[in-house]
Amino acid sequence: MSKMLFVINPISGDLDKEELAEDVRAFCLRNQIETDFYKTTGEEDERHLKQKINAFQPDIVTAIGGDGTVSLVAKAIIQSPIALGIIPQGSGNGLSKDLGIPQDFDEALHVLVDHHIMAIDTLDVNGQLSIHLCDMGFNALVVERFCEGETRGPGAYAWIAMQEFMGYTPKRYTIMTDGKTVFDGEAFMIAVTNAKAFGSNATINPSGIINDGEFEIFILEPFPKASSLGILYQLYTDTIDNSIYTHRFSCRSAEIVNHAKEHTQIDGEPVDLPEKIEFKVMPKSLRVILPNVQE
Ligand SMILES: Nc1ncnc2c1ncn2[C@@H]1O[C@H](COP(=O)(O)OP(=O)(O)OP(=O)(O)O)[C@@H](O)[C@H]1O
Description:
Layout: E1 3-8, H1 18-30, E2 34-39, H2 45-56, E3 60-65, H3 67-77, E4 83-88, H4 94-98, H5 105-111, E5 115-125, E6 128-130, E7 133-137, H6 138-148, H7 154-165, E8 171-177, E9 180-187, E10 189-193, E11 215-220, H8 228-235, E12 246-251, E13 253-258, E14 264-266, E15 269-271, E16 276-291
Parallel strand pairs: 1-2, 1-3, 3-4, 4-16
Antiparallel strand pairs: 5-6, 5-16, 7-10, 7-14, 8-9, 8-13, 10-11, 11-12, 13-16, 14-15
The structure holds adenosine-5'-triphosphate.
């Protein structure tokens, strides 16, 4: 009998999850899965979750929440044989979309019993784990405002982005990969990622491969306001590589000097990092549950 621990974030995505827990319990009973639950509190969840995992010894730990909840679970099981399941219930659900995990609750639940497991690369960002996307600049500022606000959900994120856009000033960054400076200048945002897209489906890394042992650094340089609709269009049609304002580098390690100590976020959570930030790929360090693809 397999053992699954479900980590439920009661506030993510502004969605009520009381009934979901009952559905999960019934589903596991039908499928002869031994089940336990951990409800996040927002306080010391990583420590408490690790204790729970030690005591219960699950084969799979499934996050029922948004990117922050997925990241919490990943931190607790990284470099271990335990696999990560995802039932998306957040505002953005970025990693689950990138991995092709169904966004519908019942379908995502079904994946837990009909799946394959893939080991994906993750990133070490100055000693902190990133499983999806770390960025600095405009998006990180929006993420910070979003986290400070009372309202969750994708609408709130889009509203904050619109409010912040007009007044945003690009900042200076220096990027070094493999000991060479590859960029030194101002940028609207810099993203460091293994994945293809944000939870909003804005695609910054269309050819990114999540288990190729490399990550990408995406740079969006300052652009005239008149070009913003064109850039938005390119972001949502997988054609951002056609923009004259973007660059991308693939590498295994990098250092970014964030001269202005501009806002930075990792997997949907604002972080306070020093001016010099070091990035290292951790190849195949996280086992994730993926849907079985029909041939
Ligand atoms: N019981 C709780 N009360 C208040 N905050 C909580 C609680 N449990 C978790 N949190 C907070 O929820 C945040 C993570 O939310 P999560 O990212 O999963 O959902 P989301 O923000 O709605 O969606 P997404 O990240 O996909 O946009 C963390 O900041 C965490 O501290």
